[in-house]
Design goal:
The complex is a heterodimer of chains A (75) and B (268). Chain A is built from two helices and four strands, in the order E-H-E-H-E-E. Chain A is of the alpha+beta class and 75 residues long. A four-stranded mixed sheet of chain A has the order 1-2-4-3, with helices on one face. In chain A, helix 1 packs across helix 2 (41-51). Chain B has an eight-stranded mixed sheet, sandwiched between helices. Chain B has 268 residues and is α/β, with parallel strands linked by helices. Chain B has a single domain (21-260), classed as Rossmann fold (3-Layer(aba) Sandwich). Chain B is 33% helix and 17% strand. In chain B, helix 4 (44-54) packs parallel to helix 5 and helix 4 (44-54) packs parallel to helix 10 (197-214). Classes of the chains: A alpha+beta (75), B alpha/beta (268). The interface between A and B is medium-sized, with 13 and 13 residues.
Chain lengths: 75, 268
């Protein structure tokens, strides 16, 4: 199953902080989709998630200023 | 709310939550922790400041002294509170810094009669006292109640810090069985103290307490850390449990008796 987190309007470092908190509520191996509209977060969040051992599955731009990041919680 | 945190808490604790060693789970541990700070003076100032800032959920603060102008050379949390009880003043500081923290203020003196009940109510104790009888009271009560505590003391330019986990590493009496003879060691009042020194020592105590509450890193469990601020030298001495220790070794005490906490604090 996949969870969703809408972080539009949020900036760094809170984009990562909230993604991390959300992952802490999930089970290992579960997937999370994060919506971002702050461009630097598309670089910072995946890097920080990888540092903590999570698997970044996908990052795609869906609008001019909107991205969807897909991550799998480390198992 | 996200993972049990309010929006404000997410922002307040973001720099902690980011750390892999802390995270949201560690931050929750701190918010659910209870620490008793004995003394709200020179050592207590940084201890109370950093435990409050870290979001330790409940801070007990005990001090029967009032703020005097001669304290302000090193006791940084009492601004504008001359004449006020130090525990009350410290409590006001904490509420301003972090309203998440519940403060329990005790304006009485810690004594043989109340020490066990006090420490029993907390997860960990910070020793920020300035005299031997209270230091031995805290040590002995913490061993009897099986509560970890952080020891810190200062003298002129020198300080020492150790973290005591009862029955897992030495207690203070394993190393110093009783106080030095009366008159041999001058008090801070007579000897003077370098104002920033308690800032260093108390900050190390707060570091130790937060780490122990989180269960991370290495604490000063079988090590006494010495600080010489004049020459800026830090060194440590390995310390071991004393099988003959009258408190955590042979255990000759079964309770706290007031007559044991006079000048020398000898147990027999």
């Amino acid at each position: 199953m996949s969870e969703k987190l809408d972080l539009r309007g949020e900036v760094c470092p809170f984009t990562f902080v909230k993604t991390k908190l959300k992952l802490e509520t999930m089970n290992p191996g579960e997937e999370l989709e994060v919506i971002l509209d702050y461009e630097p977060a598309t670089r910072n969040v995946p890097r920080s998630l990888k540092n903590e051992g999570h698997e970044v599955l996908d990052l795609r731009q869906v609008k001019e200023n909107e991205w969807v990041l897909k991550v799998r919680k480390k198992g | 709310m996200l993972a049990g945190f309010t929006e404000e808490q997410i922002r307040r604790y973001a720099r902690h939550i980011i750390l892999p060693e802390v995270g949201g789970e560690g931050q929750k541990k701190l918010l659910n922790s209870r620490v008793l700070c004995v003394g709200a003076g020179g050592l207590g100032s940084p201890i109370i400041q950093y435990l409050a800032a870290a979001g330790v959920g409940t801070l007990g603060i005990i001090d029967d002294d009032v703020v005097d102008i001669s304290n302000l050379q090193r006791q940084t949390i009492h601004a504008g509170n001359l004449g006020k009880n130090k525990a009350v003043s410290a409590g006001e500081f904490v509420k301003k810094l972090n309203p998440d923290v519940e403060v329990v203020v005790y304006t009485e003196r810690i004594s043989a009669d109340n020490v066990r009940d006090l420490v029993r109510d907390y997860d960990m104790i910070a020793d920020g006292t300035d005299n031997f009888p209270t230091r031995y009271l805290i040590n002995d009560a913490c061993v009897l109640e099986n509560k970890p505590f952080s020891h810190g003391s200062i003298f002129r330019f020198e300080g020492q810090i150790m973290t005591i986990i009862p029955n897992d590493g030495p207690c203070y009496r394993c190393i110093f069985e009783h106080a030095p003879p009366e008159g041999m060691v001058p008090s801070c009042q007579e000897a003077g103290v370098f104002g920033v020194l308690p800032g260093i020592v108390g900050s190390i105590q707060a570091t130790e307490i937060i780490k122990h509450l989180l269960g991370i890193g290495e604490i000063l469990k079988e090590r006494m850390l010495y600080v010489d601020a004049l020459n800026m030298d830090f060194f440590e001495i390995k310390v071991r449990r004393n099988p003959e220790c009258p408190v955590c070794g042979k255990r000759v005490i079964d309770d706290i008796y007031p007559e044991n906490y006079t000048e020398s604090c000898r147990l027999w």
